[in-house]
């Protein structure tokens, strides 16, 4: 099984390199493919060699005043078509065999950790021998394209609007919600979990949908305005993944808004808004990746490592700013696979 896992990751590295030039969806970013590829091939390339720091707000449109007001009132806001269909297809191709690959990679590990530090939480209650990922923490360490997404200007511009100029990747988590097997996600506030390592609820999520999401396959539901209630008392569950939350089944909040999403749509939401999702009894997957970001200085102890920096002071903000004509690409040397800073998404504001 270990050899199978090694072969999978070797193939994933090869495919990610061949796909890199195809993920760009705007004419401007396509002109950068050659220069970015050259940088990725240079193992000694360091960000300090670049002489200009890019601000995402110069590169991509952020939320409108109407969007920002909606986020303030409701605790969440949707951006439609944040990511192109072509890029979504490539992301799906990259993660499509993760159930089997992760099972092989951690076959002998009781802590469900891969060698690169990604951690799997499995769906519970399935037939013996059947394993389906419920969530994969640190998904950017497994998927180069998800790592690219965590650095794209379309996401980081919004994060700078909602968090401030200095932005860190708090974590990246792939939610698989598999067809027939995806389970109910209890109502919860994300800060129920994060309060034990954070000083204040300053984080913001971007949940990028890889599949269409609706009532049948367990789309996300939000209790509008619930972030204004503050952090609520919790209930503890026996689950190994979602062990903290609020009491009640899917119908506990009848006024909650269920969002209907297309592949490539993203929803931004804060750490105090109450949300949950139903099980997936359909024949369709509902895969989505949640990128959570925060500002520096919010951890109770220490700081996130330098590879988690995305924008702000003493850091080169990526991807490059097209209007400057200068590539600001840096290098990030991971344990598992080579990553190249950059990536482009064809974005438009939600109507």
Short overview:
The chain contains nine helices and 16 strands.
Largest sheet: 8 strands, antiparallel
Shape annotation:
globular
CATH superfamily grouping: q2cbj1_9rhob like domain
Helix content: 10-25%
For the termini, the CA-CA separation is: 48 Å
In DSSP terms (H or I, runs of 4 or more residues), the helix count works out at 9
Radius of gyration: 19 Å
CATH uppermost class: Mainly Beta
Mean pLDDT: 76
Strand content: 15-25%
Structural class: alpha+beta
Number of spatially distinct domains: 1
Q: Which fold name fills CATH's third level, the topology?
A: Jelly Rolls
Q: Which CATH architecture?
A: Sandwich
**What's the total count of β strands?**
16
Uncertain residue ranges: 15-58, 318-351
Structure, explained:
With 351 residues, the protein is an alpha+beta fold. It has one domain: Jelly Rolls (Sandwich). Helix content is 23%, strand content 18%. It contains 9 helices and 16 strands. The protein has helices at residues 2-20, 27-30, 33-40, 65-74, 85-95, 98-105, 144-149, 153-162, 191-194, and strands at 76-79, 119-122, 133-137, 167-175, 185-188, 204-209, 220-222, 235-236, 244-245, 257-258, 266-269, 275-277, 288-294, 309-311, 331-332, 339-340. The strands form 4 sheets. Strands 1, 2, 3, 4, 6, 11, 13 and 14 form an 8-stranded antiparallel beta sheet that branches. The protein has a 4-stranded antiparallel beta sheet with strand order 5-12-7-10, with no helix packed on it. It is globular and about 50 Å long. Residues 15-58 and 318-351 have low confidence and may be disordered.
